[in-house]
Amino acid sequence: LLVGAPQDAEPVNGTRTGAVYACPLSASTRDCQRLAIELKDEPDKAIIEDMWLGVTVASQRQPPGRVLACAHRYTRVLWSGAEAQRRMVGRCYVRGNDLRLDLGDEWQTYHNEMCNANTDTDETGMCQMGTSAGFSANIIYFGAPGAYNWQGTDYMLQRENWDLHDFSYPNKRNGNTYIGYTAEVGSAVLQQDAVTVVTGAPRYRHTGAVLLLSRGARQALNGSLVLPGPQVGSYFGSAIALADLNNDGWQDLLVGAPYYFERKQEVGGAVFVYMNEAGGFQPLPSLLLTGPSYSGFGFALASLGDVNQDGFQDIAVGAPFEGPGKGYIYHSSAEGLQERPRQVISGSELGPTPIQTFGYSLSGGLDVDGNSYPDLLVGSLSERIVLLRARPVINILDKTFTVTPGKVDPAQCTPRSCMTVTLCFSYNQSAGDPNYRERITLQYTLEADRDRHPPRVKFSGSQSATYTGDFSMPDTRCQSQELLLLDNVRDKLHPIVLSMNYSLLEKPRRFQLGPHSLDAFPGLTGTSLSLQIEFQKECGSDNQCYSNLQLQSSFVTEQNQPLPRVNGTQVLQYSRDVRKLHLSINITNVPTSPTNGEDAHEALLNVTVPPSLLPSSVRPSGACTFGETVLCELGNPFKRNQRAELTITFEAIGIMLDTREVVVWLDLSTNGMSPLPFTPFPSPHPAPRASSHIQSYFSGTVVGESAMKQEQDVGSPLTFDFQVTTKGESLGTLGTILLGFEWPYEIPNGKWLLYPTEILVNGNDTCHPPGGLINPLNLTVSPAGLCHSAPSRRRRELEPPEAGEPPVTLATGRRPRSETVLSCSAGTARCVWLECPLRQTQLPSSFSLRARVWNSTFIEEFRDFDRVKVTGTATLFLRSQVPTITMRNHTVRFSVDVDSELQEEQPAEIALWLVLVSVAAGLLLLGIIILLLWKCDFFQRTRYYRIMPKYHAVRIRQEQRYQPGGLLPRRRKKLWVTKWQEPDKYY
């Protein structure tokens, strides 16, 4: 076992160079020896103090293979005159399988200093080679994260026969990404027969990344694929591992991000699993493994190999900061890595004192004890390492687990015998060692009906459904146990589930000098089995019962007549005499096709009753039990073509006037739920009665509103009588029945129409509707009995009165009769709403609405009409906050015919002589006026041309016109041009 100790000091001179220790497999835990790697301390050429030798340790993993140890802080010293410059280039050392230096081996004599110390940080002067490194059969590779201003690079040396080829990742001027922080080399990654370098860059664009590099031209490693990290600061790529998880021949990739976190899920650290898709990887992981907060889960990764010999590679994950540190073991399958760990090993379980930071480093895949199972070496920062050796894995073969008979007939079972359980086992080693014949004891537990309480069976000789026994191999072959069926088993439809769990009975460990052989402490691949025991049933060949339970139900009367339905819902007419309700239920199991109508086992009817009903009895007697619900057993089984009829009687203890609905749920065990609602509607039946119209008159003179003091000053009186009769019970506080009036109050221009004076209820009481609409002018109102001027009124009845002669008032010499109608619906009148409550709904009530015809309005606006018909409406309605109490509104229309009694004036006759004298006098006066105007020259007109001025002109030809002489100053030439046109004629 090779262990690096980067902070170790030389035992002779105390120089802290670091070291590599070799620990043999022995009984002693303190026999590790420091390897003598020849280090020359030449301070003027190189600095080996704090060079961290052992920061990386690797081997070729084969018997003649070599080992590798690196010191990434190895520093070269360059001199420029008297000034020394230091270059931390790093260095790696190769030694033989005997851990000694062989000068004849070119692998060991090669300097393995890939960085040029003569350059600065922009090149490879601070490359820190050896931060990561590794071996294969003919390849050695190094990671140098400090090269190119900490962009980082990877170096790969490949030996082919006598040739040595070196490759490196070029300078991409992408500083501070730490390429080469971790590195792995393998084939079947991007191509089956080509080598791929997989390297981690934990600071790539702050989120980290993994780069897949391939060999290119001119000894370069070209980037073929980049898998970016998901989170800033997660250090994605600080640990990587390659393993064929699903055994498809391609290497899958695992990437650690120890500082990944999810605050709400309390996650600290993650491992991203990328499944290889025939040489390609998706940008998103196939699986994400996470650890608890602050655990550093994924700080170290290692491929274990096939630790359980199931044909799939397994993985180890380190979480060094989870308590004392833990190591997680994950198994794989054909679908890839399993999400849950198969084993979790804590640093507190491996000795008398906990090992802190257990899991800081991991190395696996080698069988160090020769038992054909790979082992795991775990490092820590506590100066201790732990070798975890894999135990042999036992495969249980010929697992015979049967029950006879295959189907249980309860009629054939006895108190001593019913079913026989038979167990048979054998085993082999998963690694295929034919000489492995250890004596092992298998401890098994049989458990029947584990998920049912109480179970339906028990084992013979006990009262329990659980049995525990031992099975020694390879001597024992089979064992049998009797399983008995309990009495009065109800559930004969569902099978009895019998499960078996088994484990190895470990032998006590004895002290032994040196590593113990693990052959006597094997592990198991499988640990449980189960089977189902079916009941003998009259069902189909698939042993599944497909019944056809049908349910019909309705509420019925004492005479077994269903209650009426409204829109599919039964309706109960509310009455205080309702004391009981009867629910009739019919259930059938009649086949409607060849695939249904089979026996219905454990058929139950569960009736959920609301608090307003109390179940009191059932027919037939004893068919149901009353508790929180009504439970009716229909049969076990309810046979094919069987019918059942039930009648459940309920006490209506909670059905009140405000009850809206009562819902009873019927739950048939194999047919789901069937709701059966019905709704009672309390229905008071009011019967309003009123007449169609009455008559009144208008006449006299116009009187202003301010001059009116008494109601007689307004106009003719009107009295409307309404009688209301209701059938039913008093509503109490649940609602109020009101009589409302749509009253024609005024005409559109705002003048009064019918002036209401008062509303009398039952002859004595007065109703005052809100808003002050009754007698708003506060006129003096005469008692109802003193109004003798009002015409007689008939009482308003529901049926219209018999047709009689309509009242007619004629004026002498009046023109033919004309009529107009004033109503609110037509917009010819403005109405207000008046309403009065019925205080006693159980007795008839009478309403008298007294009013006056506003005489002045009719004289001013309607004097040209012989009759004015004024209409309104009266509505009886219910006002209630309880939605179950409803009443249909009853509306009647009333009208009053107001006839005119105004006398028209007779036209006066004029004598003929008077007309003739008047015409003659008018003509004489007109002649005198004309004569006077003529004398004043009023009719003379001055002509226009006589008063206009007159001028005379002579035409002179152009050549005869005056020309100015030479004595006159010569006219200057104008700066502009004018054009003179000589007309042919002058006017």
UniProtKB/TrEMBL annotation:
Protein's cellular compartments: Membrane
Occurrences of domain Integrin alpha second immunoglobulin-like (ranges): 539-671
Residues annotated as domain Integrin alpha first immunoglubulin-like: 390-512
Lineage top rank: taxon: Eukaryota
Chief location of this protein within or outside the cell: membrane
GO CC term (a single one): integrin complex
Transmembrane segments: 910-934
InterPro entries: FG-GAP, Int_alpha_beta-p, Integrin_alpha, Integrin_alpha_Ig-like_1, Integrin_alpha_Ig-like_2, Integrin_alpha_Ig-like_3, Integrin_alpha_N, Integrin_dom_sf
Residue ranges annotated for the Integrin alpha third immunoglobulin-like domain, each copy included: 694-900
UniProt keyword annotation of Repeat present: yes
Region (Disordered) residue spans: 790-815
Membrane topology value: Single-pass type I membrane protein
Keywords: Cell adhesion, Glycoprotein, Integrin, Membrane, Receptor, Repeat, Signal, Transmembrane, Transmembrane helix
GO biological process, alphabetically ordered: cell adhesion mediated by integrin; cell-cell adhesion; cell-matrix adhesion; integrin-mediated signaling pathway; leukocyte migration
Entry GO MF terms: integrin binding
A UniProt-annotated Pfam family: FG-GAP
UniProt repeat feature FG-GAP, residue ranges: 222-283, 284-339, 343-405
Gene3D superfamilies (alphabetical): Bicelle-embedded integrin alpha(iib) transmembrane segment, Integrin alpha, N-terminal, Integrin domains. Chain A, domain 2, ntegrin, alpha v. Chain A, domain 3, ntegrin, alpha v. Chain A, domain 4
Family, as annotated: Belongs to the integrin alpha chain family.
Protein's recorded name: ITA3 protein
Gene name of the record: Itga3
